[in-house]
Amino acid sequence: MSFFDKLKKRFKQDDGAEQVQEKYKEGMKKTRGVFSGRINDLLARYRKVDEDFFEELEEVLISADVGVTTVMDLVDELKMEVKRQNIKDTEEVKDVISEKLVEIYYGEDNEDIENLNIQENEMTVILVVGVNGVGKTTSIGKLAQQLKEEGKKVMMAAGDTFRAGAIEQLEEWGERAGVEVIKQSAGSDPAAVIYDGIRAAKSRNADVLLCDTAGRLQNKVNLMNELEKIKRVIEREIPGAPHEVLLVLDATTGQNALNQAKTFSQATDVSGIVLTKLDGTAKGGIVLAIRNELNIPVKYIGLGEQIGDLQEFDASLFVYGLFADMLEEEGVEDEDES
Amino acid sequence: MAFEGLAERLQSTIKKITGKGKISEQDIKEMSREIRLALLEADVNFKVVKDLINRIKERAVGQEVMESLTPGQQVIKIVRDELTELMGGENTRITVADRPPTVIMMVGLQGAGKTTTTGKLANLLRKKHNRKPMLVACDVYRPAAIQQLETLGGQLDMPVFSLGTEANPVDIAKQAIEKAKEEHHDYVIIDTAGRLHVDTELMTELQEIKDITTPDEIFLVVDAMTGQDAVNVAESFNDQLDISGVVLTKLDGDTRGGAALSIKAVTDKPIKFAGMGENLDQLEPFHPERMASRILGMGDVLSLIEKAQTNVDEQQAKELEEKMRSMSFTFDDFLEQMDQVKQMGPLDELLGMLPGAGKMKGLKNAQVDEGQLAQVEAIARSMTKKERQEPNIINASRKKRIAKGSGTTVSQVNRLLKQFEEMKKMMKQMTNMQKGKKGKGGFKLPFM
Q1: To which H or E segment does residue A11 belong?
Q2: What is the CATH class of B102-296?
Q3: Do B46 and A63 touch (CB under 8 A)?
Q4: Identity of the residue in A59, A141, A286 whose CB atom sits nearest the CB atom of B46
Q5: pTM
Q6: B52 Cα to chain A: minimum distance (Å)
Q7: ipTM associated with this complex
Q8: Do the chains contact at B46 and A286, CB–CB below 8 Å?
Q9: In whole angstroms, how far apart are CA B171 and each of B166, B196, B240?
């Protein structure tokens, strides 16, 4: 059974998944428009799988920010696969392409890598880091609300004491979600704020503490040191914490995202990625490169401004999102106009 | 670093053709692949890359190799010339309205840095041009966006016009301009909410603000780290609003910034300013030629040569070489050297330009902390003239004084003195090495 058949089947059987699938489809509408359009165009123009075909495929993938190294690896593997299966027709290649993309994503791991590491019997501390303007505070706000809806007692610590209006922004989210925010005045030591947050969360028996931090460019050595210090404070207060260090990445970011992932990992041991702003025309292909080169999984993706638009990541759905138009062309009934 | 500079990438290819007098078509083919990869890794849009490569090929084939350059350098020179040409000249002029106030509208995606840039631009206008700007908070959507602008206004001691989050942004803009006229502000800078270029509803809102305020400038604020999608974003904002210029933010990061090239190529609008840090005075004029080198991420041997030629006095260099050899190098020479190097530009950039530096272990990933450098300079400058000439006389009490004078500690002074001694030794070795290699004079950077 082909990859696409499997995908189709999976969505047919699972009614619960349908809603999520719609979200991906809707959110990634613009994203996939150009992408699958180009792949379709490519498949239509090339009857034969040859060098030129692969070169253009390379371009399509690069245009999705997948990253040159990963694209080269992928295309090399595809070439081998095509040879092995003796594929001559471009139509058959389609399956192999998406199969490989998902394969790159999962590697050796199973699908559990996408779940948040929430502790059963003790408080879970989640540290959120990233460069400026990627959507850290917004993601935390959305996450807080979702976790609260799951019945958890959530608290937030306003660790961005630098950017103007950052504390107020988190407070606003706190109010919307009905979640308490621990804060100090602007300009105070972020590690101290986080320390206060842990103390308060412990004494109030919170299940999850979300720690916001100020955006920082990864090449600012002193600011990265500050982040290390924050992490040390958390480690000291709660052994085993932080249970998750989430790096927030903007889907429009190009190859620099790899540098971000690398440097932030060195400082804080990033355990997962939140990919935001995927509702534009950006494709966020860089997550494939990050997974391929650094082995950090994506845990959430932001598909819009609404709270529910922060979705748990699903690699096959992500690829489905990119290829959905092609699937439907292949005759999957779908009443919805998209 | 994940990315090697173009110079490094080209090195192996170049090896094959060194010694040739002309660049053949086959050479170009191999090289253009490397150039293509380097540009793509720098996030230049693939279509823009394609056009560029074609032009570079045309120019390079059959060209005579300049006497002073290797064929590889020659190709790099062509690439850089093409990039510089595409980036256009410097342009930081702001159109001024015939009748004040001059209205500037800031637009862009979420998180690009519009609000911060609004504050920085206002600061620049006041400081450099002695203007009296008013800021307008039209982002009624993102939580606490208005507070953010108000806080910035407070820090700058500048008025911020807002009507809360319930008001319509179009009304806010309209009323703000009336207010600015009343209060005789000569500039009005409108901060708008971040929005996706495909969000028709919000893009219409921007058009309405534009219609009612007839801005003299519309600046698209773009994150320098943007990838392939920069083209779509810029094209779409430009089509819908006819932007007048671009501000590139977060350029103090380590991104190559290929987005700059893509944006210029698709919109043909000048990039006027660059955000270079988190502080409100860190908005600088955009230098297209520097950007070209940065995108190539090279080992820009040529521009180092150019820089060095203009900045380093040959005579001085010779004297210095003499001093290095005789070990009579003093802290005075050291300071002089630092000044010369500083004139050439940011130090890590310079390190990257040093031929062979990429191959030296340690140097390749060396991150030069400019702050640390300033400290070193402060220590050296806190010495007396005599101490600079004869560092040996620096005893404990002198060290204490120097530490106090430079705002450092005695142990930091000690460290510098020790490093200075080691450096002198190393220099001697280096000059001895070079003596045997080539007799050509020229510049050296002794404390590398």
Answers
A1: helix A3-13
A2: alpha beta
A3: yes
A4: A59
A5: 0.76
A6: 15
A7: 0.83
A8: no
A9: 11, 22, 20
